[in-house]
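Write out the bound-state structure for adenosine-5'-diphosphate-glucose.
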Amino acid sequence: MSNRLIVVSNRLPLTLRKADGHWTTERSSGGLASAMNPILRRNGGDWIGWAGASGEEDQEERRSVLEDWAQKEQCFAVELPEEIATGFYEGYSNQTLWPVFHNFPSQLKFDAKDWQAYVEANRIFSKAIVERYKPDDLVWVHDYQLMLLPQMLRDELPDAAIGFFLHIPFPSSEIFPILPRREELLQGLLGADLVAFQTHGHLQQFRSALLRVLGIESKVTEVAVDARPVRLEALPIGIAPDEYADLLSKDEATARYHAELITRYTGRRVLLAVDRLDYTKGIPERLRAYALLLRSSSDFREKVVLIQIAVPTREGIDTYQDLRTEVNRLVGEINGKLGTPNWTPVVYINRSIERAELAALYKLADVCWVGSLRDGMNLVAKEYVACKAEGDGVLVLSEFAGAAAEMGEALLINPFDEERTASTVERALALDEDERRQRMKTLHARVLRNNVFRWGDRFLTSLQEAVSERGRYVDTQPQRLRPAEAQQAYMSAQRRLLALDYDGTLVPFTDHPHQAAPPPSVLSLLTALARESKNCVALMSGRPAEDLDRWFGAIGSMWLVAEHGAELKPPGSSWEPLRSPVPTDWKSTVMPILEHFVDRTPGSFVEEKKYTLVWHHRLAEPEFGAWLANELVSMLEAMLADTELRAFRGQKMVEVRPVWANKGEAFERILAGYSQPDFLFAAGDDRTDEDLFERLRDGAWTVHVGPGATRAAFMVRDFESLRSLLETFTQASQASVERLSTTSFKRQLISQNAATLQRHPAWQRPGRLSMAAHTTSRTVTAVGRTAAFEWRRISAAWASVRSSGTCLKSLRE
Ligand code: ADQ
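---
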């Protein structure tokens, strides 16, 4: 790895402590320190984070400790004023984000001042990074305390390679939206080139949140933010297994601890639990399940012991104090009621312990009991397995820890079900040796293989790949289409294939689908295009076959494609489905859901077509409609996952149809019967047109109508621009065979543009008249040039159109 690495996390692996009136350094234990230290040792780089204590006193001594950190450990402390540190860390991070991200919405506390502190702290971090950043550095931001940082850095360092890893779970799309300031957090993350999670499940929930909260659709591995791709990955964190292997094989202190433990616990089976004292770790639940186990049979009396190690954490927060009280009470109760003079059922150690002692405990324990109610990964599970090279020992693991996704050989538990948890622990104690060894050996090999170095390499490789792919997107951003060039290509082609969307592409959207009957100018345009012998024209719409037949049936030389590709009608032939049979039995299941959304959304309605169902929300309050559309898509996505149906968001609508019924597939069908066209032209404004753009080979004229992200090679401003381009096609061909008389052309031109101008929405708002005038003047320009008319005469006429809207009437006369 040649690039320098800047690791950024809330806490440095070193913490400042005031002891006996002096500032001292303490090394942190905790998931992140365990994970990052080995990577930084190997790769080199800076670690930027908070020192863990602000302080006004003894500044001189404090500064000198921090300077030492910078010089000897490459750890650079970010200074957070005390008030900001509290609001940021104890406030928004740990009382708002932490409970929501761990599915504990009832623990959520929110104070707008804490949010301000969170923003400010992220800003201070951003400044510290910008100061140390050198071109080509890789910036790796860790965890939920710094979710705004990627976008803040992106604003300051637009080209920087920025990766973000979330150590904790990402909540479900039911729970995430309750989070105050959820939009800002998602936007903050999208500043990164890579956003990685512990599991695929968390990644999927993030994608759902993007859709539901921001209305942004994504792919499994990527989301596009304007012209920039953001890569999405699931990269489960590992541990450094050699650290434990070395302690167990070479370290004297570990051997001493182990020998002492063996003596102390001879004749007893040892259950081990190691956690931060956090409500997400399920400590009370475990203690209650353990009490059930002990009560279930006298065989356990004096024969088992639970060693519960609990490191105090976040003690300034009430919930944690309450937890501490509850755990103390439960431990006291079990030991008091169930213990004997020779036996303490729970050995409770409420402090951090050395790695050597921890390794000795892992080696000793018959069962490691991980009972998290929710956990990003849980490194304890992996550390225990790493200490079981011989295959003895059993891991009992909560299915709600990220680790469960890759440690299937553990005995999985639902920690909320205390009775069954107790039975599983009983089973763990009784597991026969063969099975035990087999399970543990498989786990051990996997923990060794998927270690923290591999995790770090995968993250950094993925970050670099994501950065190198930025160019791919920039290249595919559509250019503004130059009509003269398109027209030139059209004119010189011998076999042309034109695929045109209808609503939003040839005509503006209307409030209701039935209102959008084509105006005569569109009909004559399509007729002229389709009549041209070198052309094959396909009108590809989301509309039902009846609408297309009624409106365009008379243009016999044109393909019609209905319901976004589900049905086709070749020129002069009849309708046929793209594939048959097309399933429709699903409609009765989906319809009630759409109807439920109609009830919830005034102004929305369901359109039933032959093969598809559409929920339209064009008339609904825009934000509410868009928000519900996201919710509907997420709901249907989950419901339809194992069917061939999909829910698609279009312009102010959600459509449910078979996944294969799309314009790309339909286009292939048409292309198959029209070999080797030398001019391929496709225009559309909607997401459904993207299927078409994606299919068309390089060199095709794919045109997106209107602004927005697209795969098309070109864009035009609106439907009017597209129509005037198509008019230049027809008029250019006509001009080559017949010359129009000046007078008839002028009349046609003026009446056409007057009508165009009046239909333009801007016409309704006098202040925007110049915009409409501009659009129409370009039409005039294009048409005028194409037909080689005397431009001066046209522009003189047009000048008077622009000078006063009211003179249109007289001009038409
Ligand atoms: P944590 O919530 O801190 O980490 P975890 O993964 O269990 O949770 O890591 C705890 C670490 O602290 C382990 O390395 C363990 O050995 C150590 N530890 C625990 N108790 C200790 C004690 N009493 N004395 C000494 N050391 C102790 C967050 C997420 C997790 C995720 C990690 C890493 O919440 O889900 O696994 O980051 O990504």
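---
The pocket of adenosine-5'-diphosphate-glucose is lined by residues 29-32, 34-35, 167-168, 237, 274, 276, 309, 311, 352-353, 358, 375-380, 383 (CB under 6 Å).
Residues 737-752, 754-813 have pLDDT under 50 and may be disordered.
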